[in-house]
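hey team, just a heads up i'm posting the complex here instead of the shared drive bc the drive is being weird again. everything in one block, sequence lines first with there labels, then the predicted structure for the whole assembly after. its two chains so it's a bit long, scroll down
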Amino acid sequence: MKILKGNVHKYAKDNIDTDVIIPGPYLKIHDFKELAKHALEGLDPQFPSKVNQGDFILAGKNFGCGSSREHAPIALHEVGITAILSPSFARIFYRNAVDGGYLLPIEIDEKIISEIDDSDTLEINLETNTIFNITKNKTYLIKPFPELISKIVECGGLINFNPE
Amino acid sequence: MLSFCSDFELGMTITEKILAYSSHKSQVSPGDVIFSKIDKVMLHDVSGPGVIKILHEWEKKGKKIEKIWDPDRVWISEDHFVPSSDRISAENIRILTEWAQRYGIKKHFKYGLGQYGICHTLSHEEGLILPGEVYVGGDSHTNTTGALGAFAAGLGHTDIAYVLTHGKIWFKVPEALMFKITGKKPDYIMAKDIILRIIGDIGTDGANYKTMQFSGNAISDLSIEERLTLTNMTTEAGAKNGIIDPDEKTEQYLRERTKNAFKPLYTDSDATFSETFTYEIESMEPTIAKPFSPENITVARELQNVEIDKAYIGSCTGAKLEDLRMAAKILKGHKVKVRTEILPAAQSIYMKAIREGLVEIFMESGAVIGPPTCGACCGAHMGVLSKDEICISTTNRNFPGRMGHVESKTYLASPIVVAASAISGKITDPRDQVISS
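-- predicted structure starts here --
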């Protein structure tokens, strides 16, 4: 889990909300595979067919704002996404992603967004807190996880986490 | 119950005090990571089945869950997909009901069985949450109940599952923003105008991870229901919680609803806020959030030529009793020009609206009255928008597709602006309403 490799799906806009990540009518669905079919449907209905297991989303700031629906990180996880790269995350999305062990919310400098293109292949290294852009042969820094988040990530979510 | 609260060192906000008490500390500061003991937890018919699914997944992975931490501290609301919109939502209600019975949860507000309604409305209408408590709910607008002086925050399924099995959850103590509102409120201004103006100023991530606290004489003058509109929409600025120090009005409001004792906590005079924003309420205008973000604000008069297809008065933020009273004042004696739907936020509010004659005013105007539900607000059912339809709504979100088709448009406004717009068929500042029938 320390090094993740995958391709980027770039949606550079800010405030990608949970209503577009998984629209309201699907909230009654609790089958993870079914939710995956509608991941990011409000923004890009073709998204599920573009994703390969292990891919990343690169997005503008305040990713995952709006509703607390855990359907959002579940749908993205089930479709194959393992990390979201964004300058900032809405708080409940961030918690859900980490505590549910679905995917990693990776905080990056806003300037990096323009340096990474759609389909670039990246390697995220959580030990060195760096992203290596294999396509462009460039390295970027990521904001390290706070101590508690790091521990929960290592446990794969809250299920195996013991605060004592 | 809070006998050692006098031991707190000085200089804490109400949020910090509640979090310190709940984590058995004498002092907390922004940035501290703590585990808080939870007083109350809420699940509804969307988050409930989601939480049950997580608990099942945990059981499959070998975790034994024979009982939950404290069934008397858990309550359930059926609100998003009631009346059941189809077989899947009906099944979710069945799953939730069986689960609640199995684990001995008695406070289950069931659709069609006495009092029920939108969870954030029941939380205050039923006096379920008390000042000084830590309250978490499986819904982002759980922030609403902070207007009663509780720490109230929304969480996802996994976090709620953790609370149900451990009775506690982690929080990072938030830094606090203070919004001081002063002056005498003009009668065309409602709390919705205040909070939309604030979100417009600070942006939808302007309070991300932070507390939004409200004070000032204009806040003291507001009714509890109006204060709840403010804290409800702190979620739209990304806030972890919204909160208001309790006062006599809070106390009286709760005394009318619960016999349970409580001991409020208050902000110290030397508490630290990372930023303070001051507003003069007299200078505020009826305010609208244009599509597709609550931060995309302008004044109603700027939009007076925008024709609408529907006016919607509903949801946790816009269909409390006072919201309905204010809308009725505008609608009385007039006919609506566009499709108008009014859904009281809880059965008890619906009943009060009937007794006060509000429902008659609404029906005389031509509006349809519906049962309490979140359905249309989240674009799920019970009145969704078609492609290109334009709606003016008392709800709290207007993201693409929020109330229906991804190419529909929602303008957010106060109940009186929505009512005035319903009469004219276009966005209308209530001050400009043409008085004719």
